[in-house]
Design goal:
Elements: E1 2-10, H1 17-30, E2 35-38, E3 41-42, E4 46-48, E5 51-53, H2 55-63, H3 70-73, E6 76-77, H4 84-90, H5 97-108, E7 112-122, H6 135-140, E8 144-149, H7 154-167, E9 172-178, H8 188-198, E10 203-207, H9 215-219
Parallel strand pairs: 1-7, 1-8, 2-7, 3-6, 8-9, 9-10
Antiparallel strand pairs: 4-5
Helix pairs in contact: 1-2, 7-8
């Protein structure tokens, strides 16, 4: 079974969770680890001859060292590019944390050194009228990796998210700063210094802005050894 499992969340939607996850997988691959990645629920899927496919899930499927069928990487694929709970309702599907946890536990049974489970949106994105996505890592009891987009407001968002993760009884294993926009934010280094001093977890790396999908390149900006300690 997977020796190490982490849940990847972000300070918001569009912060680069998928590229960060793919880069972590690639960095672990380079270290000789066997890796798996999954995105249990994905909205914004495109219709293909093989069925609905999500770009982010395909990136994770490609970045992992172990070959898996798409349906295992992304068991719940939804067409509308909207919040998962709304997309599920429009598709007439009932989404629950228990169901997603079941998919994740099935993946955990597969042999690997590292499994990354990518969430959707931020920490409190809804799954239904009663549950948020944070219920999934809580039920699994897995540590969390936080992706912080370097833009105006990131300090507040990062500290609030880190606080919520700890309040839910989970360990923040590390965080990654991601330049999610072409232009560097004002006073970027000062913001990074503050985050490093106040987020109670190691910074795994600072990723530059790139165009296109290049997780192999981004892997070089990360240090993932700490994820395999203990």
């Amino acid at each position: 079974m997977a020796k190490k499992t982490f849940f990847v969340t972000g300070t918001d939607t569009g912060v680069g969770k998928t590229m960060v996850s793919a880069a972590i997988l690639e960095a672990a691959n380079l270290a000789g680890k066997r890796t798996l990645g999954m995105k249990p629920i994905a909205s914004g899927c495109e219709s293909t001859p093989e069925g609905l496919r999500n770009e982010d899930a395909l990136i994770l499927q490609q970045a992992a060292s172990e070959t898996l069928a798409y349906e295992l990487v992304n068991p719940v694929a939804l067409a509308p590019a909207i919040a998962p709970h709304v997309a599920a309702a429009q598709a007439g599907r009932v989404m629950s944390a228990d169901r997603l946890v079941g998919f994740c536990r099935g993946m955990q049974m597969r042999p690997a050194d590292l499994l990354l489970i990518e969430g959707a949106g931020g920490w409190r994105v809804p799954l239904n009228d009663r549950e948020t996505y944070s219920a999934v890592p809580r039920e699994l009891g897995v540590p969390v990796i936080l992706v912080v987009a370097l833009r105006l407001g990131c300090i507040n968002q990062a500290l609030l998210t880190a606080e919520a993760i700890r309040s839910d009884g989970l360990t923040l294993a590390g965080w990654v700063a991601n330049r999610a926009e072409p232009e560097a934010m004002s006073c970027e280094q000062e913001s990074l210094d503050y985050l490093k001093a106040h987020i109670p977890a190691p910074c795994l790396g600072v990723l530059p802005w790139i165009t296109g999908v290049e997780p192999e390149t981004l892997a070089g900006y990360l240090s993932v050894d700490v994820l395999f300690e203990n």
